[in-house]
Amino acid sequence: MDLRERVVAAVKQDGMSRHQAAARFGVAISTAINWVKRFDESGSVMPGKMGGYRPKKLSGEQADWLRRRCGEGPFTLRGLVKELHAERGLIVDYRSVWEFVHAEGLTHKKRR
């Protein structure tokens, strides 16, 4: 935080260019530009939040449908992805479906 504040102060108070401030404090030019831009937009040099919680797409009604579908008969994960998109309008990837099916213990064993 201290370095961010000093770079922004050099640009805003001392009248340095962003390039000069970057050279003076030993940071990349793009970094100095981004810090000053952040300060101009938000009034703070605090870094933005990274990550965060994102609710799963396969929950609630979608999860209930998927459980019922897996109980109806044979399925493949790629087939379930296509069915979710075609029948439910839900765009999910293979990994999401695999994680759901694995967590729920829903499997279909092929038998001869």
TrEMBL record:
Pfam families with a match to the protein in the record: HTH_23 (PF13384)
InterPro entries documented for this protein: Homeodomain-like_sf (IPR009057)
Protein name (Swiss-Prot/TrEMBL): Transposase
Organism: Nitratireductor indicus C115
